Amino acid sequence: MVTNLMRPVLAIGRAAQAFGRVLPAASLVMALSVAFLSASCAPPEPKTVLKTSDVETYWILDPSRTSKRYLAPAMRFTVENISPGTLISVEATGAFLLEGKGEPWGSGFFRLTEGRKRMAPGEKIVVSISSDARYTLEGDPETAFANPKFQWVEAKYFLKVGSSAWVEFGRTRVENVLGSKEARAVNQAPKS
Fold it and tell me: Of 159, 7, 1, 131, which is closest to residue 61 (Cα–Cα)?
């Protein structure tokens, strides 16, 4: 009776041993498959799937309820998906640096895609980023640029796709004008 109970166990043991001999080859195939799949799932290099254009820099005047006003540097640029695929996660960030200083003075962030919003092939999105660092001023904002304490600001902008690293797409000096070209055109248009 004991031998009858042991027979199925021995058969299972033998079957496992026979399978065990094939296991190293199967492990190699599995390892190569996982490596191939993980390589194909790696995030794309942002500069191979995105292109920027129409870069513009300016200053914005934040609304205030007091006599103090806040002047912040801003940038605007267009991002285009130049890849054949739809992008699920695209983000932009900007760093604003006082000229002559090495560290960032302020920064801003813009999410091009979120939730169900995707970036289709060939789609263009206008990105607007303003700095969280500001000048505090009283009086007419146009006089701020003539103030001896005013410092030029440089803007750098970066893009990221999925879990890729942030990649710098450009840098430029912030133009000392109030508002974007579009906003200035609206303000200068004749009123009827």
Answer: 131
Q: How far apart are CA 178 and CA 168, in angstroms?
A: 25
Total residues found in the chain within this entry: 192
pLDDT digits (tens, 9 = 90+) for 48-97: 999 999 999 999 998 777 778 899 999 999 999 999 999 999 999 999 99
- d(CA 33, CA 21) in angstroms, rounded, equals 20
| Nearest Cα to Cα of residue 179 among 66, 109, 76, 108 | 76
Q: pLDDT tens digits, residue range 96-147? A: 999 888 788 999 999 999 888 999 999 999 999 999 999 888 777 778 888 8
Scored b (16 or more CB within 10 A) or e, 52-79 reads beebbbbbbeeeeeeeebebbbbbbbeb
Is 104:97 a contact under the CB 8 Å cutoff? Answer: yes
Q: Which residue has the tokens 């799949």?
A: 37
